[in-house]
Specification:
The chain is an all-alpha fold. It is built from two helices and no strands.
Length: 74
């Protein structure tokens, strides 16, 4: 299944934010509580709570960051 290219910015935001939320929340949980019983449940709950914030943030901020990078690079 191919997604039309007009949805590329939204797909980019969804994937990037999901990957970042998964990695950062796992990292923070390991540092704070270690890996033990209930880790998977806590990690998934953390992802579910933070992804709704991360997705719109990445989607809204990405164009600004691209422009900034374009100005800062040759």
């Amino acid at each position: 299944m191919r997604i039309p290219s007009r949805f590329a910015p939204m797909l980019f935001g969804a994937l990037l934010s999901a990957i970042m939320v998964a990695l950062v929340s796992a990292f923070v949980l390991v540092l704070q509580r270690g890996v033990g019983d209930g880790f998977l449940h806590q990690w998934l709950a953390s992802c579910a709570k933070t992804w709704p914030i991360a997705f719109p943030t990445v989607t809204l901020v990405a164009p600004w960051v691209r422009r900034l990078v374009g100005r800062l690079t040759a």
